[in-house]
Amino acid sequence: MKITGIELRRIAMPLVTPFRTSFGVETERDVLLVRVVTPDAEGWAECVAMSEPLYSPEYVDGAADVLRRFLIPALPACPDVHAVGRALRPFKGHRMAKAALETAVLDARLRVAGQSLAAFLGADADRVPCGVSVGIMGSVPDLLDAVEGYVAEGYRRVKLKIEPGWDLAPVRAVRERFGEDLLLQVDANAAYTLADASHLARLDAYGLLLIEQPLAHDDMVQHARLATRITTPICLDESIESAEHAAAAIGLGACSVINVKPGRVGGYLESRRIHDLARASGLAVWCGGMLETGIGRAANLALAALPGFTLPGDTSGSHRYYATDITPPFVLQDGHLPVPTGPGIGVDPVADVLDAVTVSTEWITV
């Protein structure tokens, strides 16, 4: 498969409501799409980097720059599935940019082969249970109203973003309002320190599925210490950037659950390696989200259909974030989303919708 060119397309996607976490508020996603063009097919992928380096060191302008200057020129003329990763390995970091390029190439190859991404990865489910991530709200009553709406829609699990000053009260209110049967977890996005261990231990009373990334992203040792002081299972997110990181975390006892975000770890092949390692080690994994459009959501659903993904992920329906998605919308069905079965990621952008939200395009001849 010879690549003739690659398009970098920037689009602006307004969110239906502001999404607040411990590190900031998003009202619009600045999305970088990668389109790989061959004589026989086109492959699409979404770079999940944010506009600013708040969740990770990567950001959209930086991802576009490293793609055009280093990663795309390093591609082999006719890359196979694994050649992309080998070609990009010498460049340090930039996993979100690498993931987008590898996924777009993989999508094109699978479209030519007539194979779905789910089948290629080894998925065994045709639909996946969906959770929803609820940002930090202005008040507890606002939070309860939001959660009530998501529960009514059928979401199988609710995740609450937390930070110091917004943790015990909202968790207690949601648990009291919706009862013990609601699958409930929290995500701190590294907002606490080990000095907060006694405070975090007070969350144990609420029967949470897990607490996600309570401490700094680069300190697995402190997470291992925290694990001995609370009973709520610890899930690592930002700390896990590769299968090697996952192995280190497991060896240290730093977590008992892993949130696998393909962009954060460098792509779907590395995501599958983490899945395989965690499954062999008896750890649960689930598929995280980065407010993806339908392009990224379709690929995430393929990953979440692997047998080791035993917890509902952040694979919400399209309208959770966007009034109009750039692909045909993913609509929740009995708390689940169907896994695309078409070749590659199984979806294509809707041309007129894509054009309406496009800010810029750049064509790079390979």
What is the CATH top level name of the largest domain?
Alpha Beta
- The mean pLDDT is 96
Query: How many individual domains?
Result: 2
What is the tally of helical segments? Answer: 13
Helix content: 25-40%
Report the count of strand segments. Answer: 13
Share in β-strands: 15-25%
The CATH architecture name of the largest domain reads Alpha-Beta Barrel
User: What radius of gyration results from the CA coordinates?
Assistant: 20 Å
Characterize this entry briefly:
The protein has 366 residues and is α/β, with parallel strands linked by helices. It has two domains: 5-114 and 350-365, Enolase-like, domain 1 (2-Layer Sandwich), CATH 3.30.390; 119-338, Enolase-like C-terminal domain (TIM Barrel).
Can you walk me through this structure?
The chain has two domains: about 5-115 and about 350-365, 2-Layer Sandwich (Enolase-like, domain 1); about 120-340, Alpha-Beta Barrel (TIM Barrel). A seven-stranded parallel sheet has the order 5-6-7-8-9-10-11. It has a four-stranded antiparallel sheet with strand order 3-2-1-13, sandwiched between helices. A two-stranded antiparallel sheet has the order 4-12. Helix 9 links the parallel strand 9 and strand 10. About 35% of the residues lie in helices and about 20% in strands. Helix 9 (about 245-250) runs parallel beside helix 11. The protein is α/β, with parallel strands linked by helices and about 375 residues long. About 50% of the residues are buried. The protein is built from 13 helices and 13 strands.
